[in-house]
Specification:
globular, binds fe (ii) ion, Hypothetical protein af1432, mainly alpha, about 190 residues
Length: about 190
């Protein structure tokens, strides 16, 4: 679809949302999706689009998260398989739509992991991703009190679905986010 672009995704996102913190999360997830699209031979624009729009309904309909999004995206004439991919990120929490494609599994896994990585960068003196290393993310990952809203079990389930080691996946996701540091509110 020619309108699977980040600009189009951000435009749709802004129709339904105003929370800047949520926008930064959307952009971070989009960045990770774009990166992994290259690895999994996916369409970079399409995967980034899915990442940016994955929480589209969360701002206005937190109690219908991953459900209401179907109606919103249908109004925007978004293809069914994209809607399905977005709904599947809530598997086991707010939907029973299981991530089945690589795109869906990556989305499921990076949603929480990007949150943890950004939180790790924010507590650094530099407040930057530039000097963030895997070992400090690993330490914080094990510290359950740190960024306690990040559900580590979801990340681990995602890695299992993808048949990838958590260490490798975390290292790759750090790399994915680095070029987007400024846009996601880091120095
Ligand atoms: Fe979500
Ligand atoms: Fe999310």
């Amino acid at each position: 679809m020619p309108n699977f672009t980040r600009d189009n995704a951000i435009e749709i996102w802004k129709k339904y949302n105003t929370d800047n913190a949520l926008l930064k999360h959307a952009i971070a997830v989009g960045a990770a999706m774009k990166y992994f699209a290259k690895k999994y031979n996916g369409d970079e624009n399409e995967w980034e689009y899915v990442g940016i729009l994955h929480d589209l309904d969360y701002g206005q309909f937190p109690n219908e998260h991953c459900i209401k999004v179907k109606e919103l995206l249908e109004k925007e004439n978004v293809d069914d398989y994209i809607i399905r991919a977005i709904q599947s990120h809530g598997y086991g929490q707010c939907t029973d739509i299981k991530p089945e494609t690589d795109m869906e599994r990556i989305l499921f896994a990076v949603d929480e992991l990007t949150g943890l990585i950004v939180a790790c960068a924010l507590v650094r003196p530099s407040k930057s991703l530039d000097d963030l290393e895997y070992k400090s993310v690993k330490k914080k990952y094990k510290d359950k009190a740190f960024a306690s809203g990040v559900d580590r079990s979801i990340i681990e389930n995602g890695c299992k679905m993808l048949n990838i080691e958590l260490e490798e996946f975390t290292k790759e996701t750090i790399l994915a986010l680095k070029p987007f540091g400024k846009e996601i509110g880091l120095l």
